[in-house]
Amino acid sequence: ALEQSNTAVYFENRLFLKGYRRLQLGTNLEVEVGCFLTEHSFSHAVPVAGYVELNRADGQKITLALLQSYVENQGIGWNFVLDYLQRFLREHLVELSSQSVESPPPINPHDYFLTLMGVLGCRTAELHLAFCNSVGEIAFEPEPITSDDLAAWSAKTYTEAVATFDKLEILRDSLTDDLRAACDRLLSLRPILLDRISLSNLGSISAYKMRHHGDYHLGQVLLVENDFIITDFEGEPARSMDERRQKHSPLRDVAGMLRSFSYASSVATNQATAERPADRQHFGPLVNFWENEVAGAFLKSYRDTIQGSAVWPVDFGTADRLIDFFVIEKTLYELRYEMDNRPDWLSVPLFSLLRTLQHKRDTEDHKGEAL
Fold this sequence. Notes:
- By secondary structure, the protein is α+β, with helices and mostly antiparallel strands.
- The protein has 13 helices and 9 strands.
- The protein has helices spanning 29-39, 77-91, 93-98, 111-132, 147-171, 177-188, 190-196, 199-202, 241-245, 251-272, 280-306, 316-341, 347-370; strands at residues 2-3, 6-11, 15-20, 48-55, 61-69, 143-144, 208-209, 221-223, 228-230.
- A 5-stranded antiparallel sheet has the order 1-2-3-5-4. Strands 6-7 form a two-stranded antiparallel ribbon.
- Helix 2 packs across helix 10 (251-272), helix 5 (147-171) packs parallel to helix 12 and helix 6 crosses helix 13.
- The chain is globular.
């Protein structure tokens, strides 16, 4: 089977071999991280059974393949979540049409699903705690987040934001009317976005940076008997290997999963209303309610599991600011990715970022009026 940039070979239900078709100098990140987690007995990642590596005459290494245990599963998290949400929308179409769009259902219909998302939050935190268990291993040793780190993160995200806005300005004339209007609104909110990612907005942070997943979303987890196995530690494909190997706040992974929930809600709504666009006015409030509930369940479980460790900021507001920062960073990345690879999906991160920034502006306007 062919899986994007890799070749997959299954040995019955015992072993899984991933052959890398995009070869790079050095040990592949997935091998490096997978071996670390296997050696430290983290039970919610696929164990590494071995790997194939080419040792060149100049001393450089190139990873050719990774061998892992085969894990029986019920599919990837993305498919599970999308199927659940689409089924929910279909089943409640009639009820939605008669419900008030201003309020959620009187009884939460997602209790079982929210429990699962709480499990996912817990497993995510346990992954980050496993990365902390690295005494004496320099490549994985957690380090304090410094003022230089914060300045570098802010400056890098600022550069990426400018590049994203430049791409949007070039692309806007080729967009449909509704996307062009949304693009113009987003461009008008540039000052608010740049303020949200500024060093002054980040403030001072007392927490640790560490190795993390780096490309964390619903497509990177397997559903296994009401639990989750975390996979694919190669990092974001558009970033360099050195970038992907750098230590960072694990809250970047949290932000990545929150963005994945947002993607799922948008895709499910788009698919459910493809033939009947008028249904969007009924689905919108309910899907927003679903996304908020899912994010809340995931975050609460993550926080409850990791709170007290060195990687979680002591101040609750600091954690919120970091997650907010990384959500914007991830959404900017998604905008560039969709413009370059999947223009039909551009609306997902575009409208999401627009809602985030518009909400921030409205909140500040209300504060100004109160004063």
